[in-house]
TrEMBL record:
Name used for this protein in its record: HTH merR-type domain-containing protein
Domain HTH merR-type: 9-68
Pfam (any one): DUF433
InterPro entries named among the record's database cross-references: DUF433, Homeodomain-like_sf, MerR-type_HTH_dom, WH-like_DNA-bd_sf
GO biological process: regulation of DNA-templated transcription
Amino acid sequence: MFPVPLTVTMTGVTKSQLAGWRRAPVVLAPEHGTRPRALYSFQDLVALRTFARLRSKVSLQKIRKALSTLDMLELTEHPSKYTLVAHGESIALVDNDEAIDLVEAPTTRVMVEMVDVFNSFINRNEVAVVDFKHPRPQLEVNLNRLGGWPTIKGTRVPYDAIVDLVADGDVSYDEVAEYYPSVTPDAVADAVAFAQLIEDAA
């Protein structure tokens, strides 16, 4: 489960957008509730990141209309299951080699340029959103490793375990290898920098 600050950092959706969407689930309510605090699933992060990328190109009304069209077409799985891309002033659903418009001319086939929602992008607020699979060069996200929690590249070591280890200054970046032999000082620096991004989002 992903808390709000990590969700904000990984998706490009703002804290206030998440709060608003929790009160009135306009786009997506957290899969794991809101009490005592909101926790988002890995699927939620993928969907929210898609919405943030779309929101940098089209209005929230158009995103809602696209989701409504998906419902009308009886495509009711979690939004992360669908590939949605901005198509001019509209949104298209990409399925295999076809794309259909969901907003301007629902169900009309269209040609779209595919973008990888996991790549870094600039959100609506002109803020750079981290690369989803590699939020820092020495960190990676893999759904099959710790449920998608960010880890040190090539390991199962959670980034926050490293941050906690060096937090009080008793263990230097170089000494981390005594506890985790596969974790380099560069990886420690990336974990700490990523933790700072998350703290800034809190």
